[in-house]
Protein backbone atom coordinates (compact mmCIF):
# COMPACT_ATOMS: atom_id res chain seq x y z
CA UNK A 1 0.00 0.00 0.00
CA UNK A 2 1.44 3.36 -0.97
CA UNK A 3 1.50 6.53 1.11
CA UNK A 4 -0.95 9.13 -0.27
CA UNK A 5 1.48 11.89 0.71
CA UNK A 6 3.94 10.54 -1.87
CA UNK A 7 1.58 11.56 -4.69
CA UNK A 8 2.44 15.24 -4.12
CA UNK A 9 6.14 14.44 -4.64
CA UNK A 10 5.34 12.54 -7.84
CA UNK A 11 3.32 15.48 -9.21
CA UNK A 12 5.96 18.03 -8.28
CA UNK A 13 8.72 16.09 -10.06
CA UNK A 14 6.45 15.49 -13.07
CA UNK A 15 5.70 19.23 -13.32
CA UNK A 16 9.21 20.52 -12.58
CA UNK A 17 11.27 17.86 -14.37
CA UNK A 18 13.79 17.33 -11.56
CA UNK A 19 13.94 16.48 -7.88
CA UNK A 20 15.89 19.68 -7.18
CA UNK A 21 13.22 21.96 -8.67
CA UNK A 22 10.48 19.89 -7.03
CA UNK A 23 12.24 20.26 -3.66
CA UNK A 24 12.31 24.04 -4.08
CA UNK A 25 8.62 24.07 -4.97
CA UNK A 26 7.65 21.95 -1.96
CA UNK A 27 10.11 23.51 0.47
CA UNK A 28 11.61 20.08 1.06
CA UNK A 29 15.02 18.44 0.86
CA UNK A 30 16.05 17.06 -2.58
CA UNK A 31 17.01 13.72 -1.01
CA UNK A 32 13.57 13.50 0.61
CA UNK A 33 11.84 14.12 -2.73
CA UNK A 34 13.89 11.42 -4.47
CA UNK A 35 13.28 8.98 -1.62
CA UNK A 36 9.52 9.54 -1.58
CA UNK A 37 9.28 9.09 -5.36
CA UNK A 38 11.27 5.85 -5.07
CA UNK A 39 8.96 4.71 -2.24
CA UNK A 40 5.91 5.35 -4.42
CA UNK A 41 7.46 3.43 -7.32
CA UNK A 42 8.29 0.51 -5.02
CA UNK A 43 4.79 0.47 -3.53
CA UNK A 44 3.11 0.54 -6.94
CA UNK A 45 5.63 -1.78 -8.61
CA UNK A 46 6.03 0.73 -11.44
CA UNK A 47 8.87 2.83 -12.83
CA UNK A 48 7.26 6.27 -13.01
CA UNK A 49 10.25 8.22 -14.33
CA UNK A 50 13.19 7.76 -16.64
CA UNK A 51 16.14 9.14 -14.68
CA UNK A 52 18.48 11.05 -16.99
CA UNK A 53 21.35 13.48 -16.49
CA UNK A 54 19.08 16.25 -17.74
CA UNK A 55 16.40 15.40 -15.18
CA UNK A 56 13.39 13.19 -14.62
CA UNK A 57 11.13 12.33 -17.56
CA UNK A 58 7.81 10.55 -17.12
CA UNK A 59 7.78 6.94 -18.23
CA UNK A 60 4.77 5.51 -20.05
CA UNK A 61 3.51 4.20 -16.70
CA UNK A 62 4.01 7.64 -15.19
CA UNK A 63 2.09 9.26 -18.03
CA UNK A 64 -0.78 6.83 -17.48
CA UNK A 65 -0.85 7.67 -13.77
CA UNK A 66 -0.46 11.44 -14.09
CA UNK A 67 -4.09 12.51 -14.60
CA UNK A 68 -5.35 10.09 -11.95
CA UNK A 69 -2.78 11.55 -9.55
CA UNK A 70 -3.92 15.09 -10.34
CA UNK A 71 -7.51 14.09 -9.67
CA UNK A 72 -6.47 12.50 -6.39
CA UNK A 73 -4.59 15.65 -5.37
CA UNK A 74 -7.58 17.82 -6.28
CA UNK A 75 -9.93 15.63 -4.23
CA UNK A 76 -7.49 15.65 -1.31
CA UNK A 77 -7.30 19.45 -1.45
CA UNK A 78 -11.10 19.66 -1.34
CA UNK A 79 -11.24 17.36 1.68
CA UNK A 80 -8.50 19.39 3.37
CA UNK A 81 -10.36 22.64 2.73
CA UNK A 82 -13.53 21.21 4.25
CA UNK A 83 -11.59 19.84 7.21
CA UNK A 84 -9.88 23.20 7.74
CA UNK A 85 -13.27 24.88 7.91
CA UNK A 86 -14.31 22.44 10.62
CA UNK A 87 -11.07 22.79 12.59
CA UNK A 88 -11.49 26.55 12.86
CA UNK A 89 -14.26 25.80 15.35
CA UNK A 90 -11.86 23.86 17.64
CA UNK A 91 -10.53 25.96 20.53
CA UNK A 92 -8.92 25.55 23.93
CA UNK A 93 -5.64 25.25 25.84
CA UNK A 94 -3.60 22.05 25.69
CA UNK A 95 -0.72 21.56 28.12
CA UNK A 96 1.82 19.43 26.26
CA UNK A 97 4.73 17.85 28.11
CA UNK A 98 7.81 16.40 26.40
CA UNK A 99 11.59 16.41 26.67
CA UNK A 100 13.62 19.56 26.17
CA UNK A 101 15.02 18.58 22.77
CA UNK A 102 11.66 18.01 21.15
CA UNK A 103 10.27 21.12 22.86
CA UNK A 104 13.07 23.38 21.59
CA UNK A 105 14.15 21.76 18.31
CA UNK A 106 11.67 19.33 16.76
CA UNK A 107 8.28 20.77 17.70
CA UNK A 108 8.48 24.51 16.80
CA UNK A 109 8.23 24.12 12.98
CA UNK A 110 5.50 21.50 13.42
CA UNK A 111 3.56 23.71 15.83
CA UNK A 112 3.66 26.47 13.21
CA UNK A 113 1.89 24.11 10.79
CA UNK A 114 -0.49 22.96 13.52
CA UNK A 115 -1.43 26.58 14.33
CA UNK A 116 -2.38 27.23 10.71
CA UNK A 117 -4.76 24.26 10.90
CA UNK A 118 -6.04 24.94 14.42
CA UNK A 119 -5.60 28.69 15.01
CA UNK A 120 -7.71 28.72 18.18
CA UNK A 121 -5.91 25.88 19.97
CA UNK A 122 -3.26 27.25 22.31
CA UNK A 123 -0.35 24.95 23.17
CA UNK A 124 1.54 25.34 26.45
CA UNK A 125 4.77 23.35 26.13
CA UNK A 126 6.43 22.01 29.28
CA UNK A 127 9.84 20.31 29.09
CA UNK A 128 10.35 19.46 32.73
CA UNK A 129 12.84 16.67 33.40
CA UNK A 130 10.14 15.11 35.61
CA UNK A 131 7.38 13.08 33.96
CA UNK A 132 4.09 14.90 34.48
CA UNK A 133 1.24 12.77 35.86
CA UNK A 134 -1.62 12.83 33.34
CA UNK A 135 -3.96 11.08 35.78
CA UNK A 136 -3.50 13.94 38.27
CA UNK A 137 -4.03 16.56 35.56
CA UNK A 138 -0.44 17.84 35.62
CA UNK A 139 -0.54 17.89 31.80
CA UNK A 140 -3.10 17.14 29.09
CA UNK A 141 -0.96 15.42 26.47
CA UNK A 142 2.50 13.87 26.73
CA UNK A 143 4.97 13.22 23.91
CA UNK A 144 7.11 10.44 25.36
CA UNK A 145 9.81 7.98 24.38
CA UNK A 146 9.54 4.64 26.10
CA UNK A 147 9.12 0.93 25.45
CA UNK A 148 5.68 0.70 26.99
CA UNK A 149 3.71 3.65 28.44
CA UNK A 150 2.49 2.87 31.95
CA UNK A 151 -0.38 4.41 33.87
CA UNK A 152 -4.08 4.02 34.60
CA UNK A 153 -6.68 4.95 31.97
CA UNK A 154 -4.11 6.26 29.48
CA UNK A 155 -4.95 6.66 25.82
CA UNK A 156 -1.85 6.16 23.68
CA UNK A 157 -0.96 6.67 20.03
CA UNK A 158 2.22 5.07 18.73
CA UNK A 159 3.86 7.41 16.22
CA UNK A 160 7.14 5.82 15.14
CA UNK A 161 10.29 4.10 16.37
CA UNK A 162 12.98 6.75 16.25
CA UNK A 163 16.41 5.20 15.66
CA UNK A 164 19.55 6.73 17.19
CA UNK A 165 23.22 6.79 16.18
CA UNK A 166 26.52 8.68 16.59
CA UNK A 167 27.27 12.14 15.21
CA UNK A 168 30.16 14.60 15.25
CA UNK A 169 31.09 17.82 13.48
CA UNK A 170 33.00 18.07 10.20
CA UNK A 171 35.75 19.82 12.17
CA UNK A 172 36.08 16.95 14.62
CA UNK A 173 36.08 14.34 11.82
CA UNK A 174 38.80 16.24 9.96
CA UNK A 175 41.00 16.52 13.05
CA UNK A 176 40.46 13.11 14.65
CA UNK A 177 39.25 10.95 11.78
CA UNK A 178 35.95 9.14 11.42
CA UNK A 179 35.63 5.84 13.29
CA UNK A 180 34.64 3.06 10.90
CA UNK A 181 33.45 0.62 13.56
CA UNK A 182 31.89 0.88 16.99
CA UNK A 183 35.06 -0.55 18.53
CA UNK A 184 37.02 2.45 17.23
CA UNK A 185 34.85 4.80 19.33
CA UNK A 186 37.02 3.90 22.32
CA UNK A 187 39.82 6.06 20.92
CA UNK A 188 37.68 9.17 20.57
CA UNK A 189 36.31 11.96 22.74
CA UNK A 190 32.73 11.13 23.65
CA UNK A 191 29.99 13.45 24.95
CA UNK A 192 27.37 11.98 27.29
CA UNK A 193 24.42 13.17 29.34
CA UNK A 194 21.05 14.45 28.26
CA UNK A 195 19.27 14.65 31.59
CA UNK A 196 16.87 12.24 33.27
CA UNK A 197 14.76 11.55 30.18
CA UNK A 198 17.75 10.69 27.99
CA UNK A 199 20.53 9.27 30.15
CA UNK A 200 18.88 5.87 30.48
CA UNK A 201 18.72 5.54 26.69
CA UNK A 202 22.30 6.77 26.36
CA UNK A 203 23.73 4.45 29.01
CA UNK A 204 21.85 1.41 27.68
CA UNK A 205 23.21 2.04 24.19
CA UNK A 206 26.78 2.43 25.43
CA UNK A 207 26.56 -0.78 27.44
CA UNK A 208 25.17 -2.78 24.52
CA UNK A 209 27.03 -1.38 21.51
CA UNK A 210 30.16 0.38 22.79
CA UNK A 211 31.11 -1.04 26.22
CA UNK A 212 34.71 0.21 25.99
CA UNK A 213 33.80 3.87 25.56
CA UNK A 214 34.37 6.21 28.49
CA UNK A 215 32.75 9.65 27.95
CA UNK A 216 35.05 12.52 28.86
CA UNK A 217 32.50 15.35 28.61
CA UNK A 218 29.05 15.40 30.22
CA UNK A 219 26.08 17.74 29.77
CA UNK A 220 22.86 17.51 31.74
CA UNK A 221 20.78 18.54 28.70
CA UNK A 222 20.54 17.08 25.22
CA UNK A 223 20.76 20.52 23.64
CA UNK A 224 24.07 20.96 25.49
CA UNK A 225 25.35 17.66 24.08
CA UNK A 226 24.39 18.73 20.57
CA UNK A 227 26.02 22.15 20.96
CA UNK A 228 29.23 20.50 22.19
CA UNK A 229 29.26 18.08 19.26
CA UNK A 230 28.66 20.88 16.75
CA UNK A 231 31.56 22.81 18.33
CA UNK A 232 33.91 19.91 17.60
CA UNK A 233 34.33 18.68 21.17
CA UNK A 234 33.62 15.05 20.38
CA UNK A 235 31.17 12.39 19.27
CA UNK A 236 27.70 12.03 20.76
CA UNK A 237 24.70 9.76 20.43
CA UNK A 238 21.35 11.32 19.48
CA UNK A 239 18.19 10.49 17.58
CA UNK A 240 18.10 10.78 13.80
CA UNK A 241 14.95 12.90 14.11
CA UNK A 242 16.80 15.45 16.23
CA UNK A 243 19.99 15.32 14.14
CA UNK A 244 18.01 16.08 10.96
CA UNK A 245 17.70 19.67 12.18
CA UNK A 246 21.51 20.10 12.15
CA UNK A 247 22.93 19.54 8.65
CA UNK A 248 26.43 20.35 9.94
CA UNK A 249 26.47 17.13 11.98
CA UNK A 250 28.13 14.08 10.41
CA UNK A 251 26.36 10.73 10.84
CA UNK A 252 28.99 8.10 11.60
CA UNK A 253 27.07 4.82 11.53
CA UNK A 254 23.71 3.52 10.34
CA UNK A 255 21.04 4.14 12.99
CA UNK A 256 20.66 1.51 15.72
CA UNK A 257 17.29 0.33 16.97
CA UNK A 258 17.07 1.28 20.64
CA UNK A 259 13.98 -0.54 21.86
CA UNK A 260 12.13 2.71 22.59
CA UNK A 261 9.09 4.05 20.78
CA UNK A 262 7.60 7.52 20.30
CA UNK A 263 4.10 8.04 21.72
CA UNK A 264 1.45 10.71 22.14
CA UNK A 265 -0.45 10.03 25.35
CA UNK A 266 -3.50 11.56 26.99
CA UNK A 267 -5.97 10.50 29.68
CA UNK A 268 -9.29 8.80 29.03
CA UNK A 269 -11.31 11.46 30.87
CA UNK A 270 -10.33 14.19 28.35
CA UNK A 271 -9.69 12.17 25.18
CA UNK A 272 -12.95 13.25 23.49
CA UNK A 273 -12.48 16.99 23.99
CA UNK A 274 -12.05 18.49 20.49
CA UNK A 275 -8.86 20.42 21.24
CA UNK A 276 -7.27 17.31 22.82
CA UNK A 277 -8.28 15.20 19.82
CA UNK A 278 -6.78 17.89 17.56
CA UNK A 279 -3.37 17.50 19.21
CA UNK A 280 -3.50 13.71 19.34
CA UNK A 281 -4.48 13.50 15.67
CA UNK A 282 -3.17 16.65 13.97
CA UNK A 283 0.14 17.04 15.75
CA UNK A 284 0.65 13.27 15.71
CA UNK A 285 0.22 13.20 11.93
CA UNK A 286 2.73 16.05 11.54
CA UNK A 287 5.29 14.18 13.66
CA UNK A 288 4.86 11.01 11.58
CA UNK A 289 5.22 12.98 8.35
CA UNK A 290 8.38 14.68 9.64
CA UNK A 291 9.85 11.33 10.68
CA UNK A 292 9.26 9.95 7.18
CA UNK A 293 10.75 13.04 5.54
CA UNK A 294 13.94 12.78 7.58
CA UNK A 295 14.30 9.01 7.32
CA UNK A 296 13.99 8.81 11.09
CA UNK A 297 11.17 6.28 10.84
Please outline the helices and strands.
Blueprint: H1 6-16, H2 19-26, H3 30-44, E1 49-52, E2 55-58, H4 60-87, E3 92-97, H5 100-117, E4 121-126, E5 141-146, E6 154-160, E7 164-169, H6 170-176, E8 191-193, H7 196-209, E9 217-219, H8 222-230, E10 236-239, H9 240-243, E11 249-251, E12 261-267, H10 274-294
Parallel strand pairs: 3-4, 3-5, 8-9
Antiparallel strand pairs: 1-2, 5-12, 6-12, 7-10, 7-11
Helix pairs in contact: 1-2, 1-3, 1-4, 2-3, 5-10
Assembly form of the protein: single chain
CATH H level of the largest domain: which superfamily?
Periplasmic binding protein-like II
Fill in the CATH topology of the largest domain: D-Maltodextrin-Binding Protein, domain 2
Written as H for each helix and E for each strand, in order along the chain, the element string is HHHEEHEHEEEEHEHEHEHEEH
Compute the number of structural domains. Answer: 3
* CATH architecture field of the largest domain: 3-Layer(aba) Sandwich
What percentage of amino acids are in beta strands? Answer: 15-25%
Structural class: alpha/beta
Organism: Sphingomicrobium clamense
Keywords: DNA-binding, Transcription, Transcription regulation
Family: Belongs to the LysR transcriptional regulatory family.
InterPro entries: LysR-type_TF_proteobact-type, LysR_HTH_N, LysR_subst-bd
Task: Provide an overview of this structure.
- The structure is a single chain.
- This protein has helices at residues 6-16, 19-26, 30-44, 60-87, 100-117, 170-176, 196-209, 222-230, 240-243, 274-294, and strands spanning 49-52, 55-58, 92-97, 121-126, 141-146, 154-160, 164-169, 191-193, 217-219, 236-239, 249-251, 261-267.
- The chain is α/β, with parallel strands linked by helices and 297 residues long.
- The chain folds into three domains: 6-86, Arc Repressor Mutant, subunit A, CATH 1.10.10.10; 88-161 and 260-294, D-Maltodextrin-Binding Protein, domain 2; 164-251, 3-Layer(aba) Sandwich (D-Maltodextrin-Binding Protein, domain 2).
- The strands form four sheets. The protein has a five-stranded mixed sheet with strand order 4-3-5-12-6, with helices on one face. A three-stranded antiparallel sheet has the order 10-7-11. Strands 1-2 form a two-stranded antiparallel ribbon.
- Helix 1 (6-16) crosses helix 3 and helix 5 (100-117) crosses helix 10 (274-294).
- The model has no long low-confidence stretch (mean pLDDT 87).
Amino acid sequence: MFDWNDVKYFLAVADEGSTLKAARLLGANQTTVARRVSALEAALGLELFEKRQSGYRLSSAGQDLLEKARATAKAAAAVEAEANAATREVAGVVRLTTNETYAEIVLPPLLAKFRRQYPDVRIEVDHSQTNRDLAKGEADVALRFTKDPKGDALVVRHLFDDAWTCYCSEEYAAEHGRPKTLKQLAGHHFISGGGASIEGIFDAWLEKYAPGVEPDLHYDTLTGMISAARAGLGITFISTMTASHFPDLVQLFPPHPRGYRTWLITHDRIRRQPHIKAVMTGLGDLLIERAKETGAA
